[in-house]
Amino acid sequence: MKLLQLTDLHFGSFPFKGEDKRTEALVRNLVKATEPDLIVLTGDIHWSLESGSLTILSGVLDFFDSLRVPVAITWGNHDSESVYNRRVLKELVYHMKHHVEKLGLASVEGRELYYFDAGNYRLYFLDSGDYDEDHNYAYVYEEQIRDLIALDGGEEKEGLLFMHIPVVEFDDAKKAGLAVGHKDETVCAPVKNTGLVDALLNESTVRHIFVGHDHDNDFTANWRGMNLYYGRITGYNAYGDLPRGARLIELTEAGVESRIVEEGLDTEL
Fold first, then answer.
1. Cis peptide before 15 (omega within 30 of 0)
2. To bridge 77 with a disulfide, which of 50, 130, 150, 249 should be the other Cys (CB 3.0-4.6 Å)?
3. Ramachandran region of residue 167, left (φ > 0), alpha (ψ -120 to 50) or beta?
4. 177 CB-near residues (< 8 Å, 6+ apart)
């Protein structure tokens, strides 16, 4: 099974204009070239502070529906900075035709968690939130961690977790010299570490965490048995020097493989 992780699209118009049209074209080309079985959007899908942003987001979701490929969505910090919250975003997704069924659905303060099974793998999609009480990047709530552990598929289901904001272990791995790939900006993780990685290693079969958020990072690392992956920024309507692209993930009998794909370039990582 092939998954195409698109992240940080940052659409700010619909119908698409300017840089957003470049992002639209890139997404179409990536989907055509890779023929994924599932598209995963790991947050910051739109600029929620743009005028008419809910209409923009509705158009973006219609665009993904038009690709006729199953899609799974989790949100980023920029997706609900306006007057609306995560619950409003959930209602828009409810009307999509090609979003996967949200199995095991749980919600903590509007942040959803659900899973999707793919053969011997279980894919989890966790809303990592936006900002904490001190306006630092949000941390995963302990209740969310408990919900995630409760959904574990056991030894028969190797787990992959998709979310937007990286956990602090990405920074630990980078500082320890374990990062492979582009590591061109500070890891913008939460200040507070609620123990997600340790809990997953000790109490679940999740061994892969995929994130977005930091546009000039796309590195991977193994931190004490947990495989950490940044996606590649997809959207042109945002900062970042890396060529736009995606992470292509393949679930095989031998294990999880992934690489960065760009328009006109396929680079093994």
1. yes
2. 130
3. beta
4. none
Q: Is 7 helix (H, G, I), strand (E, B) or coil?
A: strand
pLDDT in tens, 179-212: 999 999 999 999 999 999 999 999 999 999 999 9
Q: Are 104 and 44 in contact (CB under 8 A)?
A: no
- Nearest CA to 110 out of 149, 162, 74 is that of 74
Q: Which residues contact 231 (CB under 8 A, 6 or more apart)?
A: 5, 6, 7, 8, 42, 210, 211, 212, 218, 246, 247
Exposure class string for 218-239: b at 16+ Cβ within 10 A, else e: bbbbebeebbbbbbbbbbbbbe
- Residue count of the chain, please give it: 269
Residue 268, pLDDT > 50, answer no
Q: What is the distance between the alpha carbons of residues 234 and 164, in angstroms, rounded to a whole number?
A: 13
- The closest alpha carbon to 75, from 107, 108, 41, belongs to 41
Confirm if 193 and 136 have CB atoms less than 8 A apart: no
Burial class of residue 186, CB neighbours in 10 A (0-12, 13-18, 19+):
exposed
Which helix (H) or strand (E) segment holds residue 62: the answer is: helix 53-66
* 206 backbone dihedrals φ, ψ, rounded to 5°: -70, 125
Over residues 110-119, the pLDDT tens digits come to 999 999 999 9
| pTM attached to this predicted model | 0.96
Closest CA to 147 of 120, 119, 109, 118: 109
Distance from C-alpha of 8 to C-alpha of 97, rounded to nearest angstrom = 22
